[in-house]
Amino acid sequence: MWTAFPGLHDQLMQVEQVIQANIKLRNKAIQNTLEALTINGGKLVRPAFLLLFATFGPQQDPPKFSKSAAAMEILHLATLIHDDVIDDSPLRRGVTTMHTHYGKRNAIYAGDYLFTVYFELINETARNAQDTHLNAISMRQILLGELDQMRFDFKTGMSVKDYLREIDGKTAALFQLSCEMGTRLSGASLTIQRRARRIGHDIGMAFQVLDDILDYTQSEATLAKPNGEDLRSETYSIPLLFAVQNYPELKTLLRQEMTPAHVAYLVHLVQTYGVADAKDLASRYTQKALAEIAQLPSGDAAEILKQITQALLIRTN
Predict the structure, then answer these.
(1) Deepest of 12, 34, 54, 292, by most Cβ within 10 A of its Cβ?
(2) pLDDT per residue as tens digits for the range 118-146
(3) Is 163 within 8 Å of 125 (Cβ atoms)?
(4) What is the Cα–Cα distance from 159 to 226, expressed in whole angstroms?
(5) Distance from CA of residue 40 to its chain's centroid?
(6) Which residues contact 138 (CB under 8 A, 6 or more apart)?
(7) Distance in angstroms (rounded) separating the CA atoms of residues 94 and 197
(8) What is the DSSP letter of 171?
């Protein structure tokens, strides 16, 4: 994804090195699994946004930016490990999930350990208490989004408004934090900081909607995780919500046993009745982000942001 942007690609390789250097455990088996998760399929999208937005301020400190970008990816990885425990997912990025290998208790502790690494890196890079506070409240927002997800299943139901509130915390908050931290660390103007925050939010919303679409449209081999996983875990996501709106009989079908054949049939129904509306929603968020990006100071960073944002709309994994 990043080879078209050599300078950014080199910076992201440095971010990977920072991640590897800061994940050190006496339990080598778990450390090896964490390392595999960081290098097998991690797109480093959130670190990339931090690095790009860091170019908009006068205070350039590449080593500090690399550490802060690494912190964003480590926080993301911690939430993924906890997500997999909650969803009982067998695969993540083509790698057997940690709880499948080592049990849920060890996976939870591994995720918690990554939270401590994240805060150590933030402590090293934050310019002031306000930067640290921003990370703390953003992490709280992420965790509240995860807890919101646990309130709903096929029995209790979920609305589109509920879903948008959930992903506003679960996914958009970290994109928002990554973009805003880049501008803050580089001393960019308040106008650019606020614009970065809005761009990060809208990209994060589009990213999660697309991620949920892929669960219904891509093969297991492409996704590197089971197809229809949201159905198996009784999770409402936006394609399913739109499908239920457009085909109300689907509610009854969701109460039936999730055999492989039934899951395949439900996936077909969601593809037919829900995916198009979900794609339209992702497109609207993407267009909002692109409109804000167009207002940034012109230059390489703004152009790369535009290209990346457009590419995320057509991604296949």
Answers:
(1) 54
(2) 999 999 999 999 999 999 999 999 888 87
(3) no
(4) 25
(5) 16
(6) 173, 174, 176, 177
(7) 32
(8) I
